[in-house]
Specification:
Length: about 190
Amino acid sequence: MQSITNTATRYGWATILLHWLIGIIFIGQFALGFIMVRLTSQRTAFELIQLHKSLGFLLLGLIILRIAWRLGNAMPPLPASVGALERRTAPLAHLALYAFQITLPLSGWALVSVSTLEIPTMPFNLFVMPNLPLAESDAAESFWAAAHWYLAYVGIALVALHVAAALRHHFLLRDSVLTRMITPSSGGE
């Protein structure tokens, strides 16, 4: 039987599901953001922006849950075949991913909070999300729009690096780094 929690050698269902769900939403958000700002239909663009904001808040909640889960669960160590340099840089890469996955939705929240358009944010049309206590201005909106844009591109570069590293482990090093994030641990491990 598969375990919800991690073991000494593999990840459990909770870690695996959070990892892939966050990854899919994060990549989807990048694609959605890229498309929504290039549409000519104002109505479609507005609907996609609202979806983008909803998914951004969902992503923020999931990454906070993921970090809490990680802090409360032992993480399997890297295989013995992994070199010293990679052992030192892998935690930094994960920390950078977590930082960007928190900072990016927060920058989007700041952007809608300072917008002079004052369009309410309603995640999945369930409730009105209050704005952050920031002053509205065109200058602040320009700053946060640029910050959100740059953070998105840095975030997608980090995801690409993460994917490349996982593929390197699987196809070149032929170790268990990728497979243990696909196949959950069993309770008896």
